[in-house]
Structures are given as structure tokens and as C-alpha cells.
Amino acid sequence: MKSARKIAYLKRKNRTTKPYSWIKKIILPGLIIAGLSLAFLFIKLNARYWDGDNKFAFVFPDDNGNVGVTVLDPTVDEMTTLVIPGDTEVTKNFSLPVFLWTDKNLPNLFKFVFLPGMTNIPFGDRVSIALFSFKVKNMDKTEIDLAKSQFVVKRVLTDGKTGYIIPGETSGRITVYFTDNDFIKPALVGKNIKVYIVDSTGRPNVSQEVGRIFEVMGGKVVSIDKSQGVRDFGCEIAGKDKGLVKKVVNLFGCKIVSENTDFDLEIRLGSEFSKTF
Q: Which end of the chain is more exposed for a tag (fewer CB within 10 A), N or C?
């Protein structure tokens, strides 16, 4: 039989523990959910380039003087890194649609996100990349060293030094990693994204190189028009799909013009564009 003192003690204990129990069961979970929701919203608002659904690529230097290009593919939960020898003679960027870069690579995720050094990848995108990297299994992370493959060959370069060159056009076995879902999906049902290029740069091969990048993404260049002569401007883009137009703006730094076009994308290149491309 319990003593009166013990009964009184248990009553006091119940009175003091019930409020804390209520806080633990309701308030704390609510605060955690609210905190996670705010963190998710903050990341989304600060993610400028990656929607988490399409492929995402960026360039970085590795510790051996090479250049790495990492591609994240959320449709299959895979990460692929192409290692390009630092002494490779290349034309522009292998015709790859990549414009983002960072000083830090993914193996050091803390530095990649919080101490990236020089980079043009926004904080929200870096957090999204890190979370995706955590999710992808090691067996789905692939590294392709081009120096150990047939994609590049060793030769004497134009500066007289020994290095690597790309024999011909970049292999489709490489460019397949850089196709864009927004370009590829219409093509699967016979509706290729048609790209019309007006070249007013006054320089050879610029529009062909730009066209090759569109083709790597999955578009179809239907015409390159050089009839307007040299014009002094940068890059202008018009299109029917705002999402595609935004991608071109990010990739080439074009100005959006609201003119009607008969094509899915109409890109105009001026002499200023050729100076920075």
C-alpha cells in the first residue's frame, strides 16, 4: 500500500511532466517540420539553374591539372564525371552545353557547398547538388578518363608540346550524357526542336559551333542564315517555349526578344558575341 507521501509525490510529478510531454509530442515535431519546410523553400528560392528534374552539368579543375565535367542525371539517379587531360587541344568546350564551373569538386561536399572559392554556381544549386550526391549510390557514380580511352589521342600540339587532341567531332558516346530532356522528349514523338540561327558575327565557324551545341542537346538546326552581314550586337533569342528560351539565355547570355518566329528557337549572333564565345 502506497504511503500518503509517495502518492503526493507522484501527483506532483504527473503535473510537471504532462506539459513537457505535450510539448514533445506536438510542438517539437511542428517546429522540425516548419524548419525543414523553410530550409527547403530557401534552397528552392536560391536554386537558379537546376530544377532537379533535368540533367545538370558543371566544370571543375582536379588536383592533377585535368578538367572534370560532372553530369547529374536525376531520371536514372546517376552521376558521370568526364576527366579531360589538362593538355588537351580543344575547340571551345567539346561542343558541350556547359557554362557552370567551380573551384571545388564533389568529394569534399562541405567545401563545395559552403567554401566553394571561385564559382558561378549559386548556393541553392550547390546544396541541391550535394543532396543529390548523397542520394546516388557509389555503383551509380561513374568516372570516364578520356586519356585512357579512344576519345582523345596523344600528338604534338600546335605549340610544339606533347598533348592530346580530339580526332574529329566529339564522340556520341560522350555527348549522350549532355542531351536535354526538354529537347529530346519532343524528338521521341517526331517533333524535333527546330533551331534557326542568324549569323551576323563576321567570323567563320561560330554559328556552326553554336549549332553543334544545340544538336548535342537534342535540337535540330534547320538553317544558318548569313545574309544579313556583320551587325554590332551580342546575342538575341526568340522562341515559343519560355523554358527553352531561358536555357539558351543561361547558356549563351542572350537577350530575349519578343518577336514572333516560325521556329521553336531563333537565335541571332552578332559581332560582340564572337568576341566572348
A: N
